[in-house]
TrEMBL record:
Its cofactor is Zn(2+). This is 4,5-DOPA dioxygenase extradiol. It comes from Pontibacter saemangeumensis. Belongs to the DODA-type extradiol aromatic ring-opening dioxygenase family. PANTHER family: 4,5-DOPA DIOXYGENASE EXTRADIOL-LIKE PROTEIN. InterPro entries: Extradiol_dOase_DODA, Xdiol_dOase_suB. The gene is ygiD. GO terms for molecular function: dioxygenase activity. Residues 54-270 form the Extradiol ring-cleavage dioxygenase class III enzyme subunit B domain.
């Protein structure tokens, strides 16, 4: 109790009542609520989307107004790979600028959301298939903050990240997501952040400023992914290597695809599925995103 009171006093003096409200929210036990939270997969694209006012960031902001206000956000980002599964457990996660070659304005962004050791421990406790380690070093990488700063610009929602165990395969990640389902009933917005089609080596840099440009193979596999998602054919999405050469071009490495499996693994039998921000950019990247629930 002394530690809680100290942090509460600090928040009151330094950040004012907005941050204090967030503190009270995440220190309360996560009780079940009547309305279940949706689940998101966000195609995050370029880090520049974190500061640009464009059709993608506008949709993220609009989406936050359309769904229930969460008690916390848990992000599975393509940019946090680890051996084993970890979860951020600090009260004040740092803003990580895990990129290079962008304007200083992007590096100057500090998204000062609180974290929650309590929610981290509760999340770890419901995962039975592996031991989840508490992490005090990571923070919020650009797969998280570039999206969430548009959704919750006041930084008044606690944000945590769950890492992706790079030693495991697609089925493992899908099954692990199943174990997180209880959090939806407790007001936690779970978000996978990556890109379904993500081949940086084949990006047409000279066409990035075009409204929409996609190579034929990228458009084709993106349509296949969407059809499989809408039809609930998750087995084929888990075994994406069997979807042909287009899938291999879309997923030369799996880290940006794995977050989609976390989102799909949380789908319930009565959940609706909707697609948004459905565009191919630079020829070989898709911003295609999914909401479940």
């Amino acid at each position: 109790m002394q530690r809680k009171q100290f942090i509460k006093t600090l928040l009151t003096g330094v950040a004012g009542m907005t941050t204090l409200t967030a503190f009270n929210r995440f220190t309360d036990s996560l009780g079940e609520q009547e309305q279940q939270m949706p689940v998101l997969f966000i195609g995050h694209g370029s880090p520049m989307n974190g500061i640009l006012d464009n059709e993608f960031s506008q949709k993220w902001a609009k989406l936050a107004k359309e769904i229930p206000t969460p008690k916390a956000v848990l992000v599975v980002s393509a940019h946090w790979l680890s051996k084993g599964t970890r979860i951020t457990a600090m009260d004040f996660p740092q803003t990580i600028h895990d990129f290079g070659g962008f304007p200083q304005e992007l590096f100057d962004v500090q998204y000062k959301a609180t974290g929650s050791a309590e929610i981290a421990k509760e999340t770890a406790s419901i995962i039975k298939s592996t031991q989840v380690e508490m992490d005090h070093d990571w923070g919020l990488d650009h797969g998280a903050w570039t999206i969430i700063r548009h959704m919750y610009p006041q930084a008044n929602i606690p944000v945590l990240q769950l890492s992706i165990d790079y030693t495991k395969g697609p089925q493992y990640h899908y099954d692990l997501a199943n174990e997180l389902a209880a959090l939806r009933k407790k007001g936690v917005l779970i978000m996978g952040s990556g890109n379904m089609v993500h081949n940086l080596r084949m990006v047409a840099w000279d066409k990035l400023n075009e409204n929409e440009f996609g190579f034929d193979w990228a458009v084709q596999i993106n349509n296949t992914f969407k059809d499989l998602i809408r039809n609930g054919q998750h087995d084929k999405l888990i075994k994406y290597e069997q979807l042909g050469k287009e899938a291999m071009l879309a997923i030369p490495t799996p880290e940006h695809y794995w977050p989609l499996l976390y989102t799909l693994g949380l789908k319930g039998s009565k959940d609706d599925v909707s697609i948004f921000n459905d565009k191919v950019v630079g020829g070989s990247l898709t911003m295609t995103s999914v909401m479940i629930g």
